[in-house]
Amino acid sequence: MKFNAFSTVFANLLHCAGKLVVICLALSAHSAAAQGQYPKRPIRLVNPYAPGGVTDVTSRIVVPQLVQAWGQQIVIDNRPGAGTNIGTEIVVRAPADGYTMLATTGAIATNPSFYPNLPFKATRDLAAVVRMADAHMALALFPNLAAKTFPEFLAMARAQPGKLTLASAGTGTSTHLAIELLKTMAKVDVAHVPFKGGGGGIVGVIGGQMSGIITPVTLVQGHHRAGRIRIVAVTTTARSPLASEFPTFAEAGVPGYEANSWVGIFAPRAAPAAIVGKWNEDVNRALRDPDVQERFKASGLVAVGGSPGEFSKHFLNDTERWAAMIKAANIAVAQ
User: Fold this and answer.
1) How far apart are CA 265 and CA 129, in angstroms?
2) Integer angstrom CA distances of residue 67 from 18, 58, 64, 258
3) What is the tens place of the pLDDT at every residue in 209-243?
C-alpha cells in the first residue's frame, strides 16, 4: 500500500512537472514571437545633440533605410544639454524594450572623466549595438609655416617647445583629445588653443594666428586645394578614404597613433538580444548601401558597421584609454 501511494504521488509530480515544462516552452515561444514582430509601433531614437550635428546627419542618412525595412516610424528626438548627458540618461532610464534607443558620439566614452558624479554609468547601463560611422580628422597647418610636412612639424615643435599653437573645437572635444594624444605620444610641447567650434580655429590658421589645427578632414580639404591651409597628415590607423593622398600620423612619425570621432547606437542594458541583433543586422545592411556610403562621404563620414561585440570592445577601450590620458593631462571642462 505504501509503495502504491508513493507511486501515485510520484506520478502526480511528473505530471505537474510536464505541465510546467509545457508552460515554460509556451512562454518562451510567445516571447520569441513577440520579439520577432518587433517593431510593432514607432521608435524613439534619442540624439543628445542639437539638430544639424554629426550624430543628426548620420542618423538621418541611416534611419530611412530602417523605416523602409520595418514599416514603422523612427522619430529622431534631439535632447541636447549637459555635454550629452541629458539625452543619454533618458535612454538609460527608458524601458528596455527597443522602443527608446540612443544615437551618440565618442563623447559617451570621455564623459565619465569630465563628469565624475553622473547618476549612471554608460559602460554598465547601456548595450553597444552598432558603430555606424567614423569622422576622420587631419592636422592642417598655416601654409607659410616653415614646417611643410608632418615630420618637419614634429622637428620644429621639439626644437621650439611651447611656441607652436594648435587649435581645437573646444576643451574636451575629440579634436582637443587628439592634440593631447599627439603631445603625449610624440613627446612634443605645443600650445592647445580651444575655440568655440572648429570654424574659428580654421580661420585662425588661415590668418596665421594659429600654427595649425586638428579637425575633421573634410572641413579643410577645400582650403587645402585653394592653398589657404596645408593638410600634412590624418589621424586614422590606415589612410583615410576621404583623403587617401595624405599619410597617417603613424606613417609619418608617431607609430600606433589613432584618434577619430565616431557615431554609434546604444540600447538600455537589458534590451533583448534579439532586438539588439535586429538593429545591428539591419543597420549593417544599410551601411553597405552605395547611396548611404556616398552620402556619408559627402558629409565627411566613413561607414564602419560590425557586430555588437566589436563595438562594445571599441567603446570600452576608448573609455579606458581616454580616461588615462585625460587624467595625465589634467583636462577639465566647464560644468
Assistant:
1) 5
2) 43, 15, 5, 34
3) 999 999 999 999 999 999 999 999 999 999 999 99
